[in-house]
Fold:
Amino acid sequence: MNLNCKPELGAHLHGRTQQVRVITEGWFQGFGYCLACMSDILEPTRANTKARDFICPQCHAPYELKSSAKTLGTRVIAGEFSTMMARIEAREAPTLMLLQYTPTWQIHNLVALHSIFLTPAVVEARRPLSPTARRAGWQGCNLRVDRIPEDGRIAIVKNGIVNGRTAVRRLYAKSVRLAELKPAQRGWTVLALDAMRKIDKTEFSLREMYSYEDEMHAAYPQNNHVRDKIRQQMQVLRDLGYIEFLGRGEYRVLV
Structure:
Protein backbone atom coordinates (compact mmCIF):
# COMPACT_ATOMS: atom_id res chain seq x y z
CA MET A 1 0.00 0.00 0.00
CA ASN A 2 1.49 3.30 -1.13
CA LEU A 3 0.75 5.98 1.50
CA ASN A 4 1.47 8.94 -0.78
CA CYS A 5 -1.49 10.92 -2.12
CA LYS A 6 -1.44 12.75 -5.44
CA PRO A 7 -2.03 16.45 -4.63
CA GLU A 8 -2.13 17.24 -8.35
CA LEU A 9 -5.63 15.70 -8.40
CA GLY A 10 -6.91 18.81 -6.63
CA ALA A 11 -4.74 21.38 -8.40
CA HIS A 12 -7.66 22.69 -10.46
CA LEU A 13 -9.78 23.34 -7.37
CA HIS A 14 -9.65 26.51 -5.28
CA GLY A 15 -11.57 25.48 -2.16
CA ARG A 16 -9.55 23.59 0.45
CA THR A 17 -12.47 21.31 1.36
CA GLN A 18 -12.91 20.21 -2.23
CA GLN A 19 -9.17 19.69 -2.67
CA VAL A 20 -9.01 17.43 0.39
CA ARG A 21 -12.03 15.45 -0.75
CA VAL A 22 -10.74 14.86 -4.28
CA ILE A 23 -7.16 14.08 -3.24
CA THR A 24 -8.02 11.66 -0.42
CA GLU A 25 -10.83 9.97 -2.35
CA GLY A 26 -8.38 9.49 -5.21
CA TRP A 27 -5.95 7.76 -2.86
CA PHE A 28 -8.67 5.62 -1.26
CA GLN A 29 -10.02 4.52 -4.63
CA GLY A 30 -6.56 3.30 -5.53
CA PHE A 31 -5.66 1.55 -2.28
CA GLY A 32 -8.87 0.93 -0.33
CA TYR A 33 -10.25 -2.59 -0.08
CA CYS A 34 -13.29 -4.34 1.35
CA LEU A 35 -13.08 -5.44 4.98
CA ALA A 36 -16.19 -7.60 4.80
CA CYS A 37 -15.04 -9.89 1.96
CA MET A 38 -11.94 -10.67 -0.07
CA SER A 39 -12.49 -7.98 -2.70
CA ASP A 40 -9.46 -5.72 -3.15
CA ILE A 41 -11.52 -3.18 -5.08
CA LEU A 42 -13.99 -0.56 -3.90
CA GLU A 43 -16.02 1.40 -6.42
CA PRO A 44 -17.03 5.06 -5.93
CA THR A 45 -20.74 5.79 -5.69
CA ARG A 46 -22.52 8.43 -7.70
CA ALA A 47 -21.97 12.04 -6.66
CA ASN A 48 -24.15 13.23 -3.73
CA THR A 49 -25.07 9.69 -2.65
CA LYS A 50 -26.08 10.00 1.01
CA ALA A 51 -24.11 8.22 3.76
CA ARG A 52 -21.79 6.31 1.41
CA ASP A 53 -18.86 7.18 -0.86
CA PHE A 54 -17.69 3.72 -1.96
CA ILE A 55 -19.23 0.27 -2.28
CA CYS A 56 -17.81 -3.20 -2.64
CA PRO A 57 -18.66 -4.66 -6.08
CA GLN A 58 -18.80 -8.19 -4.62
CA CYS A 59 -20.63 -8.05 -1.27
CA HIS A 60 -22.05 -4.50 -1.67
CA ALA A 61 -20.75 -3.34 1.74
CA PRO A 62 -20.89 0.49 1.85
CA TYR A 63 -18.07 2.76 3.00
CA GLU A 64 -17.96 6.46 3.83
CA LEU A 65 -14.64 8.33 3.87
CA LYS A 66 -13.93 11.10 6.37
CA SER A 67 -10.60 12.88 5.89
CA SER A 68 -8.87 15.35 8.19
CA ALA A 69 -5.44 16.69 9.05
CA LYS A 70 -6.37 16.40 12.74
CA THR A 71 -6.09 13.35 14.97
CA LEU A 72 -9.20 11.33 15.78
CA GLY A 73 -11.16 12.84 18.68
CA THR A 74 -14.17 11.74 20.69
CA ARG A 75 -16.60 12.95 18.02
CA VAL A 76 -16.70 12.73 14.24
CA ILE A 77 -18.92 15.04 12.21
CA ALA A 78 -21.21 12.86 10.13
CA GLY A 79 -23.94 13.66 7.60
CA GLU A 80 -27.65 14.24 7.93
CA PHE A 81 -29.12 12.96 11.20
CA SER A 82 -32.29 11.43 9.75
CA THR A 83 -30.38 9.71 6.93
CA MET A 84 -27.86 8.17 9.33
CA MET A 85 -30.61 6.95 11.68
CA ALA A 86 -32.56 5.46 8.78
CA ARG A 87 -29.47 3.64 7.54
CA ILE A 88 -28.85 2.22 11.01
CA GLU A 89 -32.46 1.09 11.43
CA ALA A 90 -32.37 -0.58 8.00
CA ARG A 91 -29.02 -2.22 8.85
CA GLU A 92 -27.41 -0.33 5.97
CA ALA A 93 -25.02 1.89 7.95
CA PRO A 94 -21.68 2.31 6.18
CA THR A 95 -18.32 1.46 7.65
CA LEU A 96 -16.69 4.83 8.28
CA MET A 97 -13.10 5.19 7.12
CA LEU A 98 -11.41 7.91 9.16
CA LEU A 99 -8.34 9.14 7.30
CA GLN A 100 -5.68 11.45 8.71
CA TYR A 101 -3.21 12.98 6.26
CA THR A 102 0.01 14.92 6.83
CA PRO A 103 0.86 18.41 5.47
CA THR A 104 2.84 16.65 2.73
CA TRP A 105 -0.18 14.56 1.70
CA GLN A 106 0.86 11.25 3.18
CA ILE A 107 -1.56 8.93 4.96
CA HIS A 108 -0.68 8.91 8.66
CA ASN A 109 -3.69 7.04 10.06
CA LEU A 110 -6.64 5.19 8.59
CA VAL A 111 -9.17 3.78 11.06
CA ALA A 112 -12.31 1.86 10.16
CA LEU A 113 -15.34 2.35 12.39
CA HIS A 114 -17.08 -1.00 11.94
CA SER A 115 -20.65 -0.51 10.68
CA ILE A 116 -21.96 -2.98 13.27
CA PHE A 117 -21.03 -0.51 16.01
CA LEU A 118 -22.97 2.39 14.49
CA THR A 119 -26.06 2.28 16.69
CA PRO A 120 -28.52 4.95 17.88
CA ALA A 121 -26.44 5.27 21.06
CA VAL A 122 -23.44 6.66 19.18
CA VAL A 123 -25.38 9.13 16.99
CA GLU A 124 -25.61 12.60 18.49
CA ALA A 125 -28.02 15.02 16.83
CA ARG A 126 -26.71 18.51 16.12
CA ARG A 127 -28.74 21.69 16.29
CA PRO A 128 -30.79 22.29 13.09
CA LEU A 129 -29.64 25.13 10.84
CA SER A 130 -31.31 28.45 11.47
CA PRO A 131 -34.29 29.64 9.37
CA THR A 132 -32.01 32.15 7.63
CA ALA A 133 -29.46 29.55 6.54
CA ARG A 134 -29.30 28.38 2.93
CA ARG A 135 -30.36 24.91 4.03
CA ALA A 136 -32.72 26.06 6.76
CA GLY A 137 -33.82 23.29 9.11
CA TRP A 138 -31.19 20.81 7.94
CA GLN A 139 -29.91 18.75 10.86
CA GLY A 140 -26.56 17.03 10.97
CA CYS A 141 -25.11 14.65 13.51
CA ASN A 142 -21.94 13.63 15.28
CA LEU A 143 -20.75 10.10 15.92
CA ARG A 144 -19.52 9.49 19.45
CA VAL A 145 -16.32 7.57 18.85
CA ASP A 146 -15.79 7.39 22.62
CA ARG A 147 -18.82 5.09 22.83
CA ILE A 148 -17.37 2.59 20.38
CA PRO A 149 -15.20 -0.17 21.90
CA GLU A 150 -11.78 -1.00 20.53
CA ASP A 151 -13.37 -3.93 18.65
CA GLY A 152 -15.10 -1.41 16.38
CA ARG A 153 -12.07 0.83 15.76
CA ILE A 154 -9.84 -1.09 13.38
CA ALA A 155 -6.48 0.41 12.41
CA ILE A 156 -5.60 -0.10 8.76
CA VAL A 157 -2.75 2.42 8.90
CA LYS A 158 -1.36 3.45 12.30
CA ASN A 159 1.26 6.18 12.59
CA GLY A 160 2.35 5.59 9.02
CA ILE A 161 2.61 1.81 9.39
CA VAL A 162 0.31 -0.41 7.32
CA ASN A 163 -1.44 -3.36 8.97
CA GLY A 164 -1.81 -6.48 6.85
CA ARG A 165 -5.10 -7.12 5.06
CA THR A 166 -5.51 -10.58 6.55
CA ALA A 167 -5.21 -9.25 10.11
CA VAL A 168 -7.54 -6.32 9.40
CA ARG A 169 -10.21 -8.55 7.89
CA ARG A 170 -9.90 -10.98 10.81
CA LEU A 171 -10.55 -8.15 13.28
CA TYR A 172 -13.52 -6.97 11.23
CA ALA A 173 -15.03 -10.45 11.09
CA LYS A 174 -14.68 -10.95 14.85
CA SER A 175 -17.59 -8.58 15.54
CA VAL A 176 -19.99 -9.93 12.91
CA ARG A 177 -21.62 -11.99 15.68
CA LEU A 178 -23.29 -8.77 16.84
CA ALA A 179 -25.25 -8.58 13.59
CA GLU A 180 -27.93 -10.92 14.93
CA LEU A 181 -29.04 -8.22 17.35
CA LYS A 182 -31.44 -5.46 16.31
CA PRO A 183 -29.82 -1.99 16.19
CA ALA A 184 -31.71 -0.67 19.25
CA GLN A 185 -30.68 -3.67 21.34
CA ARG A 186 -27.18 -3.64 19.92
CA GLY A 187 -26.68 -0.12 21.24
CA TRP A 188 -26.77 -1.33 24.85
CA THR A 189 -24.61 -4.35 24.02
CA VAL A 190 -21.97 -2.14 22.44
CA LEU A 191 -21.90 0.10 25.54
CA ALA A 192 -21.49 -2.93 27.79
CA LEU A 193 -18.73 -4.31 25.57
CA ASP A 194 -16.99 -0.93 25.65
CA ALA A 195 -17.11 -0.90 29.46
CA MET A 196 -15.74 -4.44 29.58
CA ARG A 197 -12.83 -3.47 27.31
CA LYS A 198 -12.07 -0.41 29.44
CA ILE A 199 -11.85 -2.57 32.56
CA ASP A 200 -9.11 -4.38 30.65
CA LYS A 201 -8.92 -7.50 32.81
CA THR A 202 -9.30 -11.18 31.96
CA GLU A 203 -11.58 -11.60 34.96
CA PHE A 204 -13.82 -8.81 36.20
CA SER A 205 -16.89 -8.20 38.32
CA LEU A 206 -20.38 -6.81 37.96
CA ARG A 207 -19.41 -4.12 40.45
CA GLU A 208 -16.70 -2.95 38.03
CA MET A 209 -19.28 -2.82 35.25
CA TYR A 210 -21.51 -0.64 37.45
CA SER A 211 -18.74 1.98 37.55
CA TYR A 212 -19.71 2.83 33.95
CA GLU A 213 -23.35 3.40 34.85
CA ASP A 214 -23.15 7.18 34.38
CA GLU A 215 -21.62 6.85 30.90
CA MET A 216 -24.39 4.51 29.82
CA HIS A 217 -27.06 6.76 31.28
CA ALA A 218 -25.61 9.67 29.29
CA ALA A 219 -26.17 7.63 26.11
CA TYR A 220 -29.73 6.71 27.18
CA PRO A 221 -30.87 9.55 29.47
CA GLN A 222 -34.51 8.38 29.40
CA ASN A 223 -33.61 5.05 30.99
CA ASN A 224 -33.44 5.12 34.78
CA HIS A 225 -32.76 1.40 35.21
CA VAL A 226 -29.23 1.24 33.87
CA ARG A 227 -28.03 -1.43 36.30
CA ASP A 228 -30.82 -3.71 35.16
CA LYS A 229 -29.70 -3.16 31.57
CA ILE A 230 -26.10 -3.91 32.49
CA ARG A 231 -27.08 -7.25 34.03
CA GLN A 232 -29.19 -8.00 30.95
CA GLN A 233 -26.31 -7.19 28.62
CA MET A 234 -23.95 -9.46 30.51
CA GLN A 235 -26.27 -12.30 29.55
CA VAL A 236 -26.24 -11.13 25.94
CA LEU A 237 -22.44 -11.00 25.89
CA ARG A 238 -22.37 -14.49 27.39
CA ASP A 239 -24.76 -15.82 24.74
CA LEU A 240 -22.62 -14.23 22.01
CA GLY A 241 -19.52 -15.95 23.35
CA TYR A 242 -17.68 -12.88 24.62
CA ILE A 243 -17.65 -13.92 28.29
CA GLU A 244 -18.42 -16.77 30.63
CA PHE A 245 -20.09 -16.54 34.03
CA LEU A 246 -17.95 -17.58 36.99
CA GLY A 247 -20.71 -17.06 39.56
CA ARG A 248 -21.42 -14.43 42.23
CA GLY A 249 -21.16 -11.53 39.82
CA GLU A 250 -17.78 -12.56 38.40
CA TYR A 251 -16.97 -13.02 34.69
CA ARG A 252 -14.14 -14.15 32.45
CA VAL A 253 -13.37 -12.66 29.02
CA LEU A 254 -13.30 -15.24 26.22
CA VAL A 255 -12.99 -13.02 23.13
Observations:
- The chain has two domains: 7-175, 184-253.
- The helical segments are 16-31, 81-89, 165-174, 183-199, 206-210, 213-219, 226-239.
